[in-house]
Specification:
Ribosomal_uL1/biogenesis, Rossmann fold, three-stranded parallel sheet, ribosomal protein, four-stranded antiparallel sheet, Ribulose 1,5 Bisphosphate Carboxylase/Oxygenase, Ribosomal_uL1_CS, about 15% strand, alpha/beta, 8 helices, single chain
C-alpha cells in the first residue's frame, strides 16, 4: 500500500514539473513572438507610409517630366554615420552610363605618357602640364600620376585637393598601370555624400527605362554597403528617396534593402 502511495506521489511531482516546463515554454514563445512582432512594427513605423516601389516611383516622376527626356532622375540616400565616420565617397562603373566620358589628365613622361595617350587621356605631360594646371589653364574631371611624377605633383596639392582631383595611392590614381586606369576612369562614376551622411546623386535621365534606373540605384547602394562594412556600420543605408528636376521626392519602399 505504501509503495502505491509513493508511486502516486512521484507521478504527481512529474506531472507538476511537466506542467511548469510547458507553461514556461509557452511564456517564452509568446515573449519571443512579441519581440519579433515589436521589431516588425518598428520597421513598419520607420517606413514612409507614402513610399512606392521603384518602378511605380519612376512612373510618377516621368509623369511630371513629360516632354523633358533629358531631365535628371536623382536618388537621395540617408546613411548612418558616427563622429569618426569619414566622408562617404566612392567610384564605380554604372550598368547604364549617365554622363559623357570624363576628361582625363595624366602626369607622366616617356613610355607612360605614350600609354596614356593611347588609352585616350585628354591631357598628358610633365612639368609643363603642372604649370598649366597651377595657372588654371586646363579643365578636367580626373587626374592620374605616375609614381615618378608624384613628388612634383604634390606642389600643386592646394589646387587639386579642394576639387577632389589630387591623385593618391589609396585611390589608385598614383600608379604604373597608366593605360588600365585611364580606360577605367573614363567610364567610372564618382559619388560623395554631404557631412550629414546624405548622398545626392543622379541615377539617370527621364528617357532611361525604369529597369536601367533601378539597376543604377542598386549598384550605388551596393557600393555604399561596401563602404559601411569597411567601417563596421550596421544598417548603414537607412532611407532612399528618388526625385526628378520638376517632380517631388518619393520614398522608395524597401529602399534600404534593395
Amino acid at each position: 500500500m505504501l509503495s502505491l502511495v509513493r508511486s502516486a506521489a512521484v507521478a504527481g511531482q512529474r506531472s507538476t514539473i511537466l506542467s511548469r516546463v510547458a507553461t514556461s515554454t509557452f511564456i517564452n514563445n509568446q515573449q519571443s513572438r512579441s519581440y519579433v512582432s515589436k521589431k516588425k512594427k518598428k520597421a513598419a513605423a520607420r517606413e514612409d507610409p507614402d513610399a512606392l516601389d521603384m518602378q511605380e516611383a519612376v512612373r510618377v516622376l516621368k509623369a511630371f517630366e513629360v516632354g523633358e527626356p533629358s531631365h535628371q532622375i536623382e536618388a537621395h540616400i540617408q546613411c548612418k554615420i558616427e563622429k569618426s565616420t569619414p566622408i562617404i565617397r566612392g567610384s564605380l562603373v554604372l550598368p547604364r552610363s549617365i554622363k559623357q566620358e570624363a576628361t582625363i589628365l595624366v602626369f607622366a613622361t616617356g613610355k607612360h605618357a605614350d600609354e596614356a595617350r593611347a588609352a585616350g587621356a585628354h591631357y598628358v605631360g610633365g612639368q609643363e602640364l603642372i604649370e598649366q594646371v597651377q595657372n588654371g589653364e586646363i579643365k578636367f574631371d580626373k587626374c592620374i600620376s605616375t609614381p615618378a611624377m608624384f613628388p612634383a605633383v604634390t606642389k600643386i596639392a592646394r589646387v587639386l585637393g579642394p576639387k577632389g582631383l589630387m591623385p593618391t595611392v589609396k585611390k589608385g590614381t598614383v600608379t604604373e598601370d597608366i593605360a588600365n586606369i585611364v580606360r577605367t576612369s573614363k567610364s567610372s562614376f564618382d559619388f560623395k555624400a554631404d557631412k550629414h551622411g546624405v548622398l545626392h546623386t543622379g541615377i539617370g535621365k527621364v528617357s532611361f527605362d525604369a529597369a536601367d534606373l533601378e539597376a543604377n540605384l542598386k549598384a550605388i547602394l551596393e557600393e555604399l554597403r561596401v563602404f559601411g562594412k569597411s567601417h563596421n556600420l550596421k544598417g548603414f543605408i537607412q532611407k532612399v528617396y528618388v526625385s526628378s528636376t520638376r517632380g517631388p521626392g518619393i520614398a522608395v519602399a524597401g529602399g534600404s534593402a534593395m
